[in-house]
Amino acid sequence: MKIYKIAQEDHYTKGNDYIYNEYIARNPNTSPEILKKIIEQGSDFLASWNAASNPNCPHEILKKILERGKSDTLSGYAAYNRNCPAYLLEMVLKRGRDDEVSNYAADNPNCPALAKIRWMQLTGRIGKEDPSKHIIEREEIKEDEDLKKLRDLIANNKNWYKKAQENYYTSGIASSPNTSPEILKKILEQGKDDWVSRSAAKNPNCPSSILEMVLKRGKDDYVSFYAAENPNCPSSALEMVLKRGKDDFVSRNAAINPNCPAQALEMVLKRGNNDNVSSNASKNPNCPLKAKIEWMRATGKIGQFDPSKHIMESDEKEIKEDEDLQKLRDLIKEK
Predict the structure, then answer these.
(1) Which of 88, 154, 221, 331 lies at a CB distance of 3.0 to 4.6 Å from 193, suitable for a disulfide?
(2) How distant, in Å, are the alpha carbons of 47, 91, 107, 135, 269 from that of 112?
(3) pTM of the model
(4) Higher pLDDT, 330 or 83
(5) What is the extent of the structural domain holding 257?
(6) Same domain flag for 104 and 183
(7) 77 CB contacts (<8 Å, ≥6 apart)?
(8) Are residue 140 and residue 243 in the same domain, yes or no?
(9) Mean of per-residue pLDDT scores for the chain
(10) Which of 160, 195, 221 is at the close of a domain?
(11) Burial class of residue 31 in the structure, from the number of CB atoms within 10 Å of its CB (0-12 exposed, 13-18 middle, 19+ buried)
């Protein structure tokens, strides 16, 4: 089986039992049976935490963890698991504790609104409800002040655990070929230069409009580097990068990208610079032959041609006999 093979590669053995590491535990393809075994073994706390947060973790295991009534890290991961059923989250909040596991349960999108409001009232986060008001009824929810405070609290929540969970899931999907363009767009709109954004910029599903958005920022960072390298990058964006006249690594990728238009490559070579971006432009299959030869002469890569010869005109015989053109061909073959 596939999971068995992964386990063989990423763990060590002790007797006949596998000791699964955190990479296996957090893999979205890991089966519920293996996640159950990881938690029941309890031999690696990192693996157990990741198994408890894995969406494939069985309900029976999440229930067993949360019924212990502890406010430890394992319970926190179980309470924030997107697969955790509503009745378990309600059970946690009914204890009326202002602890970490209760906070995670309240942040879980599966948490019932009524249970969340009752818990926030018990812990003093929002005012006590007027018994004469039935704020949970559909017709009065819109006007309830406590519910508004609840929504604001969730919207402004800066809890590190929640952010860590979001970053983990994003990291897992940013480089996947099955990731939708909408998710990649969401990642890159944040304007970050982290590994998640870099993976999104490299993803073959990344839309051309989003890659262009990245390059329009004019940054010389790794996200821009991968955006300029992406085969979906539009020619207009690549030309825009090269018009800046820089020799940074973003420009170098733009110059070598097969989508780069001939006029942009010619523009680079006409500057007569003996730099990396010009070298990449000359290697691009879209580069006009005339511009390439003239640049190689201007930079001393091949000798100056005799002005009496018009080797760039369409006379086939004249082009074949041109000594400089033969040098160019030899030079290309050597590389």
Answers:
(1) 221
(2) 29, 11, 10, 14, 64
(3) 0.45
(4) 83
(5) 179-334
(6) no
(7) 49, 50, 52, 53, 104
(8) no
(9) 78
(10) 160
(11) middle
